[in-house]
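I can't quite decide. Please look over this sequence plus structure tokens:

:::
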Amino acid sequence: MRAEAVPRIRRGVRCSYDQIRSAHVVLFPEGVLVLNETAASVVALCDGVRSVGDIALALAGEYDGVEASDVASLVDRLVERRVVDVDG
């Protein structure tokens, strides 16, 4: 995944907080993903405006050790699971 790629949540995908699991989840037609706090922050920033590089920079101010390659890897996995689409 290139740093210039711009991810966005796919149509039909919903993000929410599951009170029972006490965790952020992504609901999509094929299933449910339970996210840790950092992954939930990445998904929240997949708005179709910010690039992968922009997301990594934004999160580096919030979390220690955020690497652009880690964000790119997560976005790749989300694309594979059909949770996000990527432009560029």
